[in-house]
Design a protein that fits this description.
- The chain is an alpha/beta fold.
- It has 2 domains: 171 residues, 3-Layer(aba) Sandwich (Peroxisomal Thiolase, Chain A, domain 1), CATH 3.40.47.10; 165 residues, Peroxisomal Thiolase, Chain A, domain 1.
- The chain is built from 12 helices and 12 strands.
- The strands form 4 sheets. The chain has a 6-stranded mixed beta sheet, with helices on both faces.
- Helix 3 links the parallel strand 4 and strand 5.
- The chain starts with 8 loop residues before the first strand and ends with a strand.
- It catalyses: acetoacetyl-CoA + acetyl-CoA + H2O = (3S)-3-hydroxy-3-methylglutaryl-CoA + CoA + H(+).
- It comes from Anoplophora glabripennis (Asian longhorn beetle).
- Catalyzes the condensation of acetyl-CoA with acetoacetyl-CoA to form HMG-CoA.
């Protein structure tokens, strides 16, 4: 191409999820737990599930076909297709190759991309790879498709109400209405066993719940701090929670998202000087000596920052939880279900020119 493509991002979105669901109040009764444990404690209202007529392939086929039809995209206009999923039904054959059934009848077989697997982060990796392809010397002028889909199920126990299912397709190209910033995103990767699937005969993961929450919040801390440094270095600008018009998170369950927004405010608090805290956080001055690494399960700190950030949460994050509260944790599509929720909750005039922070985890 003769020039660098401008404003690369998401041109169109399509999401699908099953019509079947479990009401979380009924699940509370069935499990014999106290009323509100799932609906209030976790912040979940319903949990979608698949019948035996659906699998990861059918979900992704449906969402891609719907996107192509709704936006009148010809199969020949797609040059790259990547799928992020951790729902593995074949140890060799990718979901991407199954999706080629939508393109082969039109003589289209020259589509790059494969599947990407890394727990719930696979969808974000597929999206980043799609953007990178459009911005690279390999780009041939066609669109990229990033697909994220999963069926999240857990064995009987505390984690079961945090399941869910869904798939999302994102059309990527230049001159997009949803543009991704260049050169300032932050990444944090480490080796840990908080969530993994070592038994290939079982669809259930092995989860260390407490460790998983700590890993999630630690990754959030590290990414936010790195992002602030990147913006300061590249744009010579300072960042805090007021820099964003909306803040969206990967959503294992709604309550963790609310705690995560409060966590960003805690990061802002820790990053300020004692003098600045007196001015900006006068209500929290009693927590002057708090350290991030000591605060993951500190109930007093959590409660203080949840209360302090409630208005910010209601304005900037709560609108993104519509689908997550009604469908559950969709794994790889979770973050982008939050984006869809935000978009359908706002008027176009309210979205134009706004900045959205997004945190992906897996």
């Amino acid at each position: 191409m003769s020039s660098w493509p401008e404003d690369v991002g998401i041109l169109a979105l399509e999401i699908v999820f099953p019509s079947q669901y479990v009401d979380q109040t009924e699940l509370e009764q069935f499990d014999g737990v106290s009323a509100g444990k799932y609906t209030i404690g976790l912040g979940q209202q319903k949990m979608g599930f698949c019948s035996d007529r659906e699998d990861i392939n059918s979900l992704c086929l449906t969402v891609v076909q719907k996107l192509l039809e709704r936006h009148n995209i010809k199969p020949s206009e797609i040059g790259r297709l990547e799928v992020g999923t951790e729902t593995i039904i074949d140890k060799s054959k990718s979901v991407k190759t199954v999706l080629m059934q939508l393109f082969e009848p039109y003589g289209v077989t020259d589509i790059e991309g494969i599947d990407t697997t890394n727990a719930c982060y696979g969808g974000t990796a597929a999206l980043f790879n799609s953007i990178a392809w459009v911005e690279s010397s390999a780009w041939n002028g066609r669109f990229a498709l990033a697909v994220a889909g999963d069926i999240a199920v857990y064995a009987k126990g505390a984690a079961r109400p945090t399941g869910g299912v869904g798939a999302i397709a994102m059309l990527v190209g230049p001159n997009a209405p949803l543009i991704f910033d260049r050169g300032i995103r932050a990444t944090y990767v480490r080796h840990t066993y908080d969530f993994y699937k070592p038994d290939l005969t079982s669809e259930y993961p092995v989860v260390d719940g407490k460790l998983s929450i700590q890993c999630y919040l630690n990754a959030l801390d590290q990414c936010y701090q790195q992002y602030c440094k990147n913006v300061s270095k590249k744009l010579n600008s300072e960042v805090d929670i007021s820099s964003f018009d909306a803040v969206i998170f990967h959503s294992p369950y709604g309550k963790l998202v609310q705690k995560s927004l409060a966590r960003l405010v805690l990061n802002d608090y820790v990053r300020t000087t004692k003098e600045q805290r007196t001015q900006k956080f006068s209500e929290l001055i009693k927590l002057n000596n708090i350290k991030l690494e000591d605060s993951y399960f500190d109930r007093d700190v959590e409660k203080a920052f949840l209360n302090y950030s409630k208005e910010i949460f209601d304005k900037k994050t709560s609108p993104s939880l519509l689908i997550a509260s009604q469908v559950g944790n969709m794994y790889t599509p979770s973050l982008y279900g939050g984006l869809v929720s935000l978009l359908i909750n706002k008027k176009v005039s309210e979205l134009a020119g706004k900045k959205i922070a997004m945190f992906s985890y897996g």
